[in-house]
Amino acid sequence: QVQLVESGGGLVQPGGSLRLSCAASGFTFSIYAMSWYRQAPEKERELVAFISNAGGSTYYADSVKGRFTISRDNAKNTLYLQMNSLKPEDTAVYYCKASNYWGKGTLVTVSS
C-alpha cells in the first residue's frame, strides 16, 4: 500500500537549518507531483511547496520563498525540503503529500 514517511524534524534555533525527507513506497513515485504541507498549532494545514513529477517545476508559499527548497530523487523515491533561515513561525508539523495520500508528519520546532 502507499506509504509516505517523513523524517528530519526536530528542535532548531532561529536562523538554523533542517532538511526534511519523505520516503515513498507503494506507488510509482516518479509519475506523481509531490507537495509539502505544514500545520501549526491551532491553525489550518497550509501548502508550503510543490514539485512536479520530474522536478522541473516548483512552487513556494510566499512565507517560505527564498528560504526553503523542495527537491526530489526519483531513483531513491524520496522527497526533500531544505529549510534555511528558520523562524519561530515555521514551527509546525510538516507533511508530505502525493495525490490524496498523506504521511503522518514530522514536527519542526524553531525556538531559542
What is the compact description of this entry?
The protein is mainly β and 112 residues long.
Can you characterise this structure?
The structure is a single chain. This protein is mainly beta and 112 residues long. The chain has strands at residues 3-7, 10-12, 18-25, 34-39, 46-51, 58-60, 68-73, 78-83, 92-98, 101-102, 106-110. Strand 5 and strand 6 (58-60) form a beta hairpin. The radius of gyration is 13 Å and the shape is globular.
Main sheet characteristics: 7 strands, mixed
Q: Estimate the mean pLDDT confidence.
A: 97
Count of DSSP strands: 11
Low-confidence stretches: none
Classify the beta-strand content into a percent band. over 45%
Radius of gyration: 13 Å
Order of helix and strand elements from N to C terminus: EEEEEEEEEEE
**What shape does the CA trace take?**
globular
Through-space gap between termini: 40 Å
What percent of the residues sit in helical stretches (DSSP H or I)? Answer: under 10%
In terms of quaternary structure, what is this? single chain
* Class by alpha and beta content: mainly beta
Number of helices: 0
